[in-house]
Design brief:
two-stranded antiparallel ribbon; mainly alpha; globular
Length: 80
Amino acid sequence: FYTCRVSTGCVAVSDAALLSIASGACCPADFNGDGSLTPQDIFDFLNAWFSGSVSADFDHMGGLAPQDIFDFLNAWFAGC
């Protein structure tokens, strides 16, 4: 995951946006992008969330909130 920000060189003209590069079908619950849905995805997501990483903004609502955890777990249990 990469954090991108558009700017004029002097000032930012956009909020930070999440950019991810994935191959094949997209599965948001495969948080670590290894191609399989495992408990490690949950641990990696929670580590990102508790460290404040923008990659854990699962609902893309502009910040980390407890709802991101619930949304991620719902996606994980639903499968890909």
